[in-house]
Amino acid sequence: HVQLVESRGGSVRTGGSTTLSCIYSGIPHTLYCLYWYRQAPGKAREVVAQVEPDGTLSYNNFVRDRFTVSKDNSRSALYLRMNGLEPEDSGEYLCAAGPGYDLGTSTGCYGVDSWGRGTQVTVS
Fold this sequence. Notes:
124 residues, mainly beta, eight-stranded mixed sheet, four-stranded antiparallel sheet, 12 strands, 0% helix, globular
């Protein structure tokens, strides 16, 4: 089955940067999407970034060009580089995966079916 293990987060000063990593395994086929989600205390879990099977990247609006998601297939790793961090970015960050599809001219994602355990990021 799919396993996702996030690196340790930590505390960051306002305006600072950090990079999260996620090592994945057990992905059953290439038509899989990878995601970063986050959840702040008392708030709903929200998607931060998404990587489609063809490598297309997309971000939630609150990212505002501050975050960059990348994937290294040779290392089975997903990364999230976060710059210009604000206290509102604090929360638990989770790596996730789920099946995608290929329409020939584009790919897409059906949604998440596997979650990592999450890692805490605190910005102050």
